[in-house]
């Protein structure tokens, strides 16, 4: 598959429609006042498996031939993609193998196991994750499904932004978290196709600012798997996501750990919904005044709600 087009995104939406929720778009007058803007939150924390990841995983799994699917699927993931792939595999009644770092949140380990995947634990480094996954694929013949660096995954992720723009017109900006780049690149492709005047802005932790530095350097900066509260945003950009971000994303903002925690808590308190830290980074940038967007209509993709309730950051 080549870089997803508008038609590819629509086909992805139709393919995954039986398996995903069309999630709500919520507003909050208090957060609007705090940010001096009109905010529209696309709540993928209400999605099946608790995050947007099921969109890409389902699109990838149900795009496989019967022969490929029969050998199962494999990935490495800190949690949300692993759970999504496990669930998508369960829906297609095939095997799933998920390599997870030992220090992944317990809530995410439990989710992957509960959806029926075989978990293989590894040291918490990118190299260990990749090596362990390569070993699994050699042993099983399973098809590797990247958490972000796969055009089917990217197209699936972009369906959340398609739904947001269909629900809420005339957005000035759409913001999303940035890890490996699957969500922001899918969002960028979707928004640029149906609302070309809307700016796309990504946000990531200062401790994991690989996209910010990659855009400045003009090449992908590798991840050292940093210790950030936004555990879902530790991956570096992929060879497929980076060019899309270069072309379509206007700016990458970075936020501190304290700003992420504050935004996460404000969302819990004011909107009465549970989001995980990785989902809080776009709002963190607005609350911290990282960019002047007063008076703008802003769409925000809340990427997931799989917070570890036994280890909240406040």
Classify the fold: give the CATH topology of the largest domain. Answer: Rossmann fold
* Widest sheet: strand ordering: 1-2-10-7-8-9
Principal-axis shape: globular
Number of strands: 10
Round the Cα radius of gyration to an integer and report it.
18 Å
Give me the CATH architecture of the largest domain, please. Answer: 3-Layer(aba) Sandwich
Number of structural units classed as domains: 2
Low-pLDDT runs: none
H/E element sequence = HEHEHHEHEHEHEHEHEHHEHHE
Average residue pLDDT: 96
The SS-based structural class is alpha/beta
Query: In which range does the helix fraction lie?
Result: 40-55%
Approximate strand percentage: 15-25%
Gap between N and C termini, in Å? 43 Å
The CATH class assignment of the largest domain is Alpha Beta
- Summarize the main sheet: 6 strands, mixed
How many helical stretches?
A: 13
